[in-house]
Design goal:
elongated, Jelly Rolls, alpha+beta, 513 residues, 9 helices, 28 strands, 28% strand
Amino acid sequence: MSSEKHSNLGLHKWAPTDGVLRTEFNDNFGVVDEKVAEVTSQLADKANQIDVDKQVKNIITTQSLQVTPLKQIEKFNDDLFNFDFTQGIKVINGSEAGTKQLTIDTTTTQPNHTNVAVYNAISNVRGYEIEIDPTTDITKLRLGFANSINDFTFINFSTGEYYLINAGTITTTINNPLTPIVFSTGDRVKLIFHKMIVQVYKNGVVVGIIKPQSSYSTRKLEEQGKNYPAISFRSGAVADTYGISKLKVFQKTYPKFMHLSYDDEIEILQRLTTTLPTSIFDMDSFSFMKSMHDKYGAVFTINLFYKYNDSFTLANVTANYISEFRANSHWLKFGFHGYDGIVDYSTLDSVTAKNHYDNIMTEIARFASPQCIDTMPRASMFGGSLANVIAWRDTANYNLTGLLSADDSRNSYYHTNLQRDALIACDDHYDEIEKLFFMRSDLRLDSATNVYQTLESRKNDVNYRGQQDAKILFWHAAWTWSAQVKLNIEESCKWARDNGYVFLYPMDVNPKF
């Protein structure tokens, strides 16, 4: 009999003095045969993923995007920085290095006319940021976007008004959709566009959201497929000059996509450990998810509890299937949810909260591989004080990059009311201060019906206008594999396919601006 085993596959290894049994040869051939089947399956999955990846070719070029500003102008020179100036604006040399100064030519325009400069280098931008120069009269500055050189939408920050302008003439004024904002010299003003919705940031902090209203919901600049940054100065005096010392233009970071996840899970892993099937796909739950991936390209995250009951935790999960989990990690991942269904991370101390996160990450890496970790999960009850979220973000391994927020009107995690409103109105919110990305959960599939029709109706619903680029759908373990939930999952996948959505992980589209 063999006295040793090879380290990788555990094949029998004979010393010179060992006897040889025919059954040992059969054992070795059986292990090799299983390994060949596993590699063949991995290659087939990779081929399927390549087909799915073709849908996002030329849009997403890396698995984990680290998006930098597409344009960042630190100092102005003489090339107008791709701005087209209309309605009597002239460019003059600034006395201050690094500043583009503009003045109004009253010989070609009427006093108090709205004069516009449009950045025309890029269409479909995500947003832009300026730094206010000392020469600028803040009360006369407007920022917004355009779909052509003649058709603009502007914000007057000092009054909170919103203007629709055509050919230099204000055609519509929306009174006070925004609380007036006070800016000062040196402040950074950032606008992030979600269709007609605009998130307004001051020095990296969201300070306002302009939402669609019925009075201008029929004006569909976004349907033109273009959003150009635009700057306006309302003045007729030739002595008025304006300066902008920095400009950044941000590229849109993701295509239309869908992500599927479910929460409160651990029991599926307890059953896997207890029953020890030949393959994870011998279990109905994993088999169904794989069928959705194979048919539609769907990707899934299972957000886990650490503790199932007093006798089973993630530390007890078998590692027998690590190779199979790793082979399917491009569409099946696990994430943090919480210690159990009782702990409240909005009040728990940060040391314990960090330990809970680290323990779950360590166990996922052990039984499923690090490739299976989703660093942008949904925490239990959307709870997480700022101290706890920072602890998860700053942990040594598998650090948190963001979180999925609530599908209702509650404040998720540490968010202010304005951060909550930004997520309710739009697909996402990037917290520049804390360097964390948040995406809103859209639709619960637990007990929903007519999911295809619901998603279809939201396309033209003004209340969901800013939530069309990302569809974050979810459900809970207690409902997971009911016939209705399976139907809802497949209807969601069909709708995504029919409407040109791809399947991605939110952690892979973090804009980091």
